[in-house]
Amino acid sequence: MALLLRFVLLCGVADFTRSLSITTPDQMIEKAKGETAYLPCKFTLSPEDQGPLDIEWLLSPADNQKVDQVIILYSGDKIYDDYYQDLKGRVHFTSSDLKSGDASINVTNLRLSDIGTYQCKVKKAPGVGNKKIQLTVLVKPSGIRCYVDGSEEIGNDFKLKCEPKEGSLPLNYEWQKLSNSQKLPTSWLPEMNSPVISVKNASTEYSGTYSCTVTNRVGSDQCQLRLNVVPPSNRAGTIAGAIVGILLALVLIGLIVFCCRKKRREEKYEKEVHHDIREDVPPPKSRTSTARSYIGSNHSSLGSMSPSNMEGYSKTQYNQVPSEDFERTPQSPTLPPAKFKYKTDGITVV
Fold this sequence. Notes:
Elements: H1 2-18, E1 21-22, E2 27-32, E3 37-39, E4 43-44, E5 53-61, E6 69-75, E7 78-80, E8 91-93, E9 105-107, E10 116-124, E11 127-138, E12 145-149, E13 158-163, E14 172-177, E15 196-199, E16 208-216, E17 219-227, H2 235-276, H3 287-303, H4 310-314, H5 323-328, E18 342-344, E19 347-349
Parallel strand pairs: 2-11
Antiparallel strand pairs: 1-4, 3-9, 5-6, 5-10, 6-7, 8-9, 10-11, 12-13, 13-15, 14-16, 16-17, 18-19
């Protein structure tokens, strides 16, 4: 029995010493965005492992649609770290002597796209070993904003709100009062670990400085607000003032419109009068000269009349004289009666 037990132990030791083993266990690591993640991978070799040492790190992205990517490789005593463009320049071996049994890496300036499963493979023939590490990148709470939603007046209902700009879930909230009496109203206690506190029937005792701290697994951030509960304002006076202001503004606008229209009408009238005055029209002839020229022409016509055209002359209408001259000059010149001589049946008639 003793010989059999010794044989089994020797076989087990032989199997152990003959195989390469990675001593780092599988694990999950959580880090904040922007930080550096240390991914351990330590191994031991046996005397039988005589082949060349090869170390390979693979990434299986969280998106299952993407294939595994080689992110860094050690082979033939050289390091190759430009396989994966998204991690280029951000992944490095932590040890300067990889043959010493440390194949750990650092991933710097973490991004959300770095989330996934990282696998360390070590090979030195005939020994082979591998381990997996799950890396989760979280976002620390940041850009916390505290404010009052509502009117801070006595008797009013309003809310105290705490809102982070970013932060990975789950988020934890904690409210505290920093000034005056640090004792919080009992009605607030159920909401002290929530992002919103509902204030009912506010009183001056609620006034003070409050803080809200938001935390998650990778960090925390805080904001403060000043709550000042005041008596109700004179709303009637405010409304009356607003109405008066609106009426004054309407009157002012009406005056401006009236003045503009009046000015336009004056300009239009001046333009029309200016166009009616035509400087290139010659002045009208003198009334006297017109009448005399007309009378002279009549004299010449009378002097040349013969008995044959007397009948036509008797029918002459005096409205042939320009109406303008006769209307403006009511007194027409007195002409001596004209004597006409004609013969009829041998008798001269004057």
